[in-house]
Amino acid sequence: MGSKKKQLVVSACIDVCTYKRGGRCIGCTMTRRQKAEFKKMKRSVSKQAFLYELVEQLREFGKYDSWARAYREKCKKKGATCFLDELEKSAAA
Fold first, then answer.
1. Residue 73 has what pLDDT?
2. Rounded distance, CA 35 to CA 12, Å?
3. pLDDT digits (tens, 9 = 90+) for 21-74
4. I need a labelling partner for 43 at 20 to 30 A (CA). Which of 8, 37, 58, 83 fits?
5. Dihedral, CA atoms, 64, 70, 75, 13, nearest 10 degrees?
6. DSSP string across 12-81
7. Strand pairing class (24-25; 19-20)
8. What global pTM score does this model have?
């Protein structure tokens, strides 16, 4: 019997953690509450849904492009598949 490999869903935090703009991090736009909620999530599907919503938030704040570059690098360093690849493929279709 094969074992299921758990998919690693990397946090949207890009290690800037400076809160301005109404209590939002200037790197990822998350609030402290959002970061705490993500850390509590156990299921990959919940984490992915959170990230999809966060992408919309990042776009609203005009931070998506700079965040996406840093997030891709973080995923690469962790050896994780970057959910942005899937997101961009589905947007192109």
1. 96
2. 9
3. 789 999 999 999 999 999 999 999 999 999 999 999 999 999 999 999 999 999
4. 58
5. -70
6. S--S---EETTTEETTT--BHHHHHHHHH---HHHHHHHHHHHHHHHHHTT-HHHHHHHHHHHHHHHT--
7. antiparallel
8. 0.83
